[in-house]
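Here is one chain, start to finish.
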Amino acid sequence: MLVPAGLAFVLIVSQSYGPTFAAMLLSAADQRRQILRNMRRWGGGWTTVVMCVAGPPAAVALGSILAGGDEAAELLAFDVSLGVTFLANLPVLLVLGGPLGEEAGWRGFALPRLQASMGPVPASLIIGCVWALWHLPNFMIPQMGTWQGNVWNYLLLAMLLSSIHTAVYNRSSGSLAAVIVLHASVDASSRTLLPVAFGDDRARGTVALLIGFGILLGSVASLGWLRQSAADRGFVVAPSP
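Its structure:
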């Protein structure tokens, strides 16, 4: 059953901006100020820039080639227009999509609290599960363009992506600007490359994402990006007394 157009619009807006709205509503004044500061602050240097901008399209391309074989490799052969489309989509999806409207909630509010009590990996998995549940209506809104495949693949993908976002958050010492750009790059690369490689076959597209982002997570984890250092804990927004 598909969601009517009017209700779909409400759901899309709620999904895109609800987490940030909730974070601001539930945070004390000093916590809101820190979240806003972290949204403007970049951390981690050039390695984080490269990871956030180039990591997702590289992961999507690699996953597509491994999942789609020679046919996908030929379709994704270096094409300047694909790079231009990706770079054009990046700022649009950053502002109008979920990155700007969600990350203050997921990584600005929830992640530092959960990390402080249970560590980065369990925190990432919990946020990934909630993230997937938050976006379940996408299965009934075809205009969202989400490459969900089936519910279980989508849940696994959300946990993979949540862990990668945690790694960037920790590497950048709590920079929400970095995870917002990463989130936008994930969305832009998926929407740019997957239709070229797989057309409307969303099930195969999701397998490609699982492979590519699984490799990317293994890479950043092996570099120690998931670890929360003592210095990073200084950027945790402490709960209200």
